[in-house]
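Objective 1.3, modelling of assemblies. Example input:
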Amino acid sequence: MLLDIAEVSQRSGLAPSALRFYERKGLITADGRNGLRRAYRAETLDRLALISCARDAGFTLAEIAGFLRARPSDTELRERMAAKEREVGERVDQLTRLRDSLRHAAVCEHDPLVECPEFKQAVRRAR
Amino acid sequence: MLLDIAEVSQRSGLAPSALRFYERKGLITADGRNGLRRAYRAETLDRLALISCARDAGFTLAEIAGFLRARPSDTELRERMAAKEREVGERVDQLTRLRDSLRHAAVCEHDPLVECPEFKQAVRRAR
DNA sequence: CTGCGACGTGAAGCGCGGTTCAAGCCAAGG
DNA sequence: CCTTGGCTTGAACCGCGCTTCACGTCGCAG
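Predicted structure (tokens):
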């Protein structure tokens, strides 16, 4: 019932070295061994998807490890998650403005582009 | 008319060491010297705001340097900017879903939180 | 003239998120 | 039995974005 590390690596898109690295950092655990080879439960794939997602979103591995240990009773952690939610929300706004700037820059005729007043204004809004 | 490095550092929120670092990387130039001290034109502050903004958005300094050199005639670069715009757009969508997941996680009663089906589904959507 | 403090330089160091390397073990196939 | 190939380990290394360090040079106040 356990998946070999090669299988997990392939299906998660993460290198075996990354899986071992995550194990050292306490993000995942190997649930068995085939000889010396690590073997993982299928749910580990869900967990890895979550980790990749959060890491892409700019969370540090240490933060992710914290959230993974979360239990409903941990109110301090809940507060940190709520704070993180606000932070992510701000980031969404900022990136949205940046995307709009890029959209304009891609068709703007100013030379250099950086001097375009529309672009500059967008940057000011994005601060 | 030129601003001393200390002034620029303070007003941009960047350490003098960071300004020198950016100069080595070709992101900014010192437009003069007061004795040995670097001095910058006021527009450098705009430029630094742009750099900070883009860096916060996940651009590498090398990418930023490329965009700063952009001229309207540089069609290859325009294409890269358009590509980056799409990329940022995807990131906005992903972060939006992540924010929604966090919002739910902060009030969810599952133990551990990671096992909440609603949360898991949100992660799948965010992939 | 003599500190003092903030700048200058190049080189080294740091934290993050891994990858790569050297050396070794193990299971399967020829 | 022996090779092959993919895993194991700890340790070293990498690229990024800076900061810190050691050492030197300014300009100004006392």
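Chain B has a mean pLDDT of 87.
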